[in-house]
Structures are given as C-alpha cells and as structure tokens.
Design brief:
This protein has 700 residues and is α/β, with parallel strands linked by helices. The protein contains 31 helices and eleven strands. The protein has three domains: 168 residues, Rossmann fold; 171 residues, no CATH class; 196 residues, no CATH class. The chain has a seven-stranded mixed β-sheet, sandwiched between helices. The chain has a two-stranded antiparallel sheet with strand order 7-9. Strands 10-11 form a two-stranded antiparallel sheet. The longest helix is centred in the middle third of the chain and has 42 residues. 38% of the residues are buried.
Amino acid sequence: MKVGNINIALIGNPNTGKTSVFNQLTGLNQQVGNYPGITVEKKQGVCKLSSNLKATILDLPGTYSLNATSLDENVVIELLLNKNDKDFPDVAIVVTEVENLKRNLLLFTQIKDLEIPTILVINMSDRMAYKGITLDIPYLENHLKTKIALISSRKNQGIEDLKNLIINYKNITTEPCLNASNIDDVYFGNLRRAFPNQSLYKLWLVITQDVNFVNLNRKELPNPSFTKSKQELKKLQQKETIKRYQFINDVLKVGQTIDIANAKGLRSRLDRILMHKVYGYVIFFLVLMLIFQSIFDWSSIPMDFIDTTFVSLSSWLEAILPPGVLTNLIVQGIVPGLGGIVIFIPQIALLFLFISILEESGYMSRVVFLMDKSMRKFGLSGKSVVPLISGTACAIPAIMATRNIENWKERLITILVTPFTTCSARLPVYAIIISLVIPNKRLFGVFNLQGLTLMLLYLIGFATALLSASILNKILNFKSKSYFVIEMPNYKLPMFKNVAINVIEKTKAFVFGAGKMILAISVILWFLASYGPGEKFKNAEQILLSKSENQNISKNDLNNKIAAYKLENSFIGIMGKAIEPAISPLGYDWKIGIAVLSSFAAREVFVGTLATIYSVGNTENQDTIKNKMQSEVHPKTGNKIFDFPTGISLLLFYAFAMQCASTLAITKKETNSWKWPLIQLVFMSGFAYIVALLAYQFLK
C-alpha cells in the first residue's frame, strides 16, 4: 500500500511545551537548519502515524499571536498565508498549557480564522489536580469548533490520542470559532466586496502585517474605502484582541473550573527568593560557579582523551602510510584539524546540558528577568546574560545561544561582543605567560599574585564586552522595537528526553556547521607551515650540517634545529618575518609573530607553536617550554624576550584579539553574512594591537 504524507505545523506560545510535543512525536527523526536567507531556526521532523500514513512536522517558532512583532512571528504568518509554500500545513496543531489557557487561546482563535483544520492540544494535564483545575472537554470542543487532545508530554500521556486526531484531521471543521470582522462592519464589508474570492481574515493579516502573500485577485473599485491609516489599523487590531478575549472568557467560564482551595505549589515562595534584588544575584553567582567549575573539571578528562587519541592516530597513520605529500596532509593537516573540531564537543555538550536543565526547570527565565534592568544600560537585554556568561567556556556555543534574543539589534550586539569574555582557549596562553612574568608571591599573605592576575584578565574581558555593547548600541542605527516580554513558566523537573535531544542537536550543529570551516583553515595553516620558497627551505638539512656548531650535536637536537629552520623559512615563517616591523613596537620578535599567526585557528596553538620554534622536542613538557622561553634572548641586544613589558603586552593582546577562526565561522553562520565577522576581526584585533602597544611602550 502506498504510504501517504501530510504536513503538520506545530504552533504555540513560548513555554507551552511545544518542543516537548515535537520531540514525543518525532524522537530523533529531526533536521535542524535555518529558513532561507534568515537566521531563524527551522526544526522539522517525521512521525509515522500508521502503516500507510506519515507526517512531516514543522516546529514553528514560539509566538504569542499573529500580530507580528519579531522575525520569528513573521515566519509563522508567512507560512500560514502562502498555500504555495511546500511546507504549507494540511493540519495545524496549536499547543497550549493548562495553567495559561486563556492567554494561549488567543493564538488558537486566530489560527482557526485562517480556515486550516486545527487541533487544540492542552498540555501539562498531569498538573490539573495539583492546581485544582478541571476541564469540560466536550463543551470546549463544541464552542471552539475543534478536536482537543488532553496530554502530558512529560509523562507521555495522550500522545496516541493526538496521533489518532491527526489521522482523522479531515473530520475537523474549518469553520472559525468567532466572527472577528464585526468590530467594523463597514470596513470589513468593503474589504469583502473588493476581494470576494479571498479569506477575509487572511486579507486582514496582509493589510496589517509585513508579510508576503501571493495571488490576490483584487476587484477594481473607483474609490477604495477600505484603506486606513496605521493608527486606525492599530485601533482595529486592539478591538479585535479585546473581542477575542471576551469570547475566550465566555467559553472558559463554563469549560474551565479552578478551585484555588485545592491548589498547591511553592512557585511564589521560590520566586521571592530566586528573584530577590540581592539574594537573586548571589544565588545566580553560586549557580554559575557550580556550572563552570563542573564544565572545566568534567570536560578535561574527555578532552585530554580526545587530544591523546588524535595524536596517537596521527602517529599510527604516519607509521602505516607511505611517505609523501598526501600522508603529510593527512597526518599534519586533516587529522589535527578534525581533532581541533572534536575536542570542543565535551565543552559544548556540557554547556548546553546545563543551559537546557536551567531552561527546562524554569530557572533561566527568572535569571533573564533579574538581569534585564542592569543589561539595558549597555544596549542589551536580560537574554544577553546567558551568551556572555557561556563565553567563559567557549564563544562558539555562546554565540549559538543568542538565538533566543528576538530583537535583532540586541542579538547582533551580543554576538559581536561575546568573544571579549575570556574563554577556556585563552587559559593555556595566560597560564604560561603569567608564570613567566608575574612572580609567584602572595599579597597580604593570602591572595596569590598570579591568581589575581588571571582573575583580573577575566574581569577586563567582561567589562570590555559591556563597554563595546554600549558603544555599538549608539553606533548601530537599526530600526528595531526595544521592549522586554518573558514568560515565567512553572518550576518543573527537566525532561531527560528534551535535554538529550537539545544537547545532541546543538552539538551536531557545531560539528557539521562551523567544523567545515575550521577543518579548511587547519589545512591551509598546515600548507603554509609545511612549504616554503627558495633553497633555504628545500635544503635546510644540508645548510645546517655545513655549519661547524652542528657537527657534534645529537640527532634529536639536529632534527629540532632543522624543523625550526624550515619553519622560519616556510611561507608562514616569511609572513612572520614580514610582520616583524609591525609587531616589534609591541615587544614581539618574528617567532612570537609566527605563534600569533598560527594561533588564529585556535588561541591555545600559541604555546605549541612556540615550543616547536624554540626547538623543544616534547611540547607536552610545560616546564621545559617555560625554561626555554624564559632563557630566550634577543640575538642583538641580549635582553630577555619574555620580560615583564612583553608579557603584559601579550596578555592584553590575547585578552582582546579575535584569535579564533571557529568563532568567526559561527558568527558568519548566525548573522548569515561575512560583513559582521570581518568587522569583528578588524575591530577586536585593531583594539588589541593598540592596547598591547600602549602597555609595552609604557612599561618598557
């Protein structure tokens, strides 16, 4: 028997459990991408309803109504108005939740007016007894002119009933549940006469919203009397909303009963503590300390394992493959490039694990509300807090976390300034430079001077992010509505399935999105470091052997010298020499210049690059690297390379510079343009150069 396919649009307010319903119906049969030309996330999945019928389910962005105020809501409206769209639904499922039914039903009544078969899902039914709520389902179905699925996505109850309603969706009437056009009989009468073959409510949405709607067969009128000013249309929209709520109130007076005496809950008491103007910040700070301590501790084991595995893989491939260019490309370029992608996975997965738990539990909404007032001073909102804090682990998932910021200007500013926050990739650079130039002493007998320096670098990064956000807020002249609306969901235990799917999808998005660019850049860097023009690169071994000081040294030392000499005369070495005049005012020589260029792919490459340049055989031996770096001197002046002024200059440079190709890649992906990552690169690196220059010149 031929298997049929139907399209389903899953629609609902934020925090109604819409994503939970989507996950229950589709499981891991999901695809996540972006709508063409925009950065709004598109989630689509497949659900097998019966042996001969399957459904393609589109999880539309959360929206409060069809009166669009954001890009997310525009996506919903444009899909529901365009029948020619390949994703246009055969049936719409509107997800509501039992405790906020009145507000959720506003969107439902609007969807019904579009004359699409619509199923009403009332979620979180397991909380009805807890909250003293009872529903008269037959009465609600009759007056809302729909079929209702009473479900609990948390306990997987009612999902089969929902599937049966979907299978029989053709039996659901497309008749609207109320007549909203009588708010102005004259205006809507003229509109109906001008467009006799069109749905009246679709016409109303086309007039009031900025959407794409095709095939309007307008009847010519000598003096169209349905045109109104924006102010008049706004008043009609308000009348429409009032009329819909009046209808909803009348229906719920009979269809829903709430017995407050039997209701139970700790929500109000918890809110008084977690959203307190003092205790709220303290608790949030403690939660962050717990999260990031766990991220650094837990991720270190799998990251070390991944690092060791890829090093072993390179050695194994080098041993079994025949010598040649292809083997070098695989061993020195592709495998390390893949390792540079995969090694981020533990941090990304753990970070999104904690973020998902905080969101699922209902706590993250409280944090966003708590921080909103403080962030407004810098042109951001409370929703920018999560990405900025996440950036202390890694800027990549932090920038991906900006997707929940509806205001494009606020989202863009957050994306651009997040890399200023100190990420874990800077730690290897900070650790080795601090150990070289900051004495290991205690201040007041308590505070370690090196530890205070590290903390200061974190504070400088966060302060710079806020200052940059404030400047960008004044510079960027975008037309965008700036207001703050957030749902305060009930506290609940996170659903394992939702958390797991979210972590898997976000991790996949990184690996298959930004990972492609990271791998490509790694291969380019390998080529630049592995090849060079002229005889000095090609005949490095003969040139070094001809020198008397190299006649009696060990083979290992000779190989290290050859590697360092070839690197100096490779393409990337020549680039280092070329930029030496520009970086010498910062206190850097050409070797540091190569390390700076190499670490563009990832900041932590800085230490490994210097270890190779300084002919250290074992790059994992930190003491050896430190000793070699500490003893390195200028060949002309005899002064130490890594003195206090140079060390501070380097610390400040890495605190501000955009030395991360993967961050640029994810910025490009999230903004859908190369314009913003290039601005990010030029501004951050230029600012880093100026600060490092001033620091060195002042301290030397």
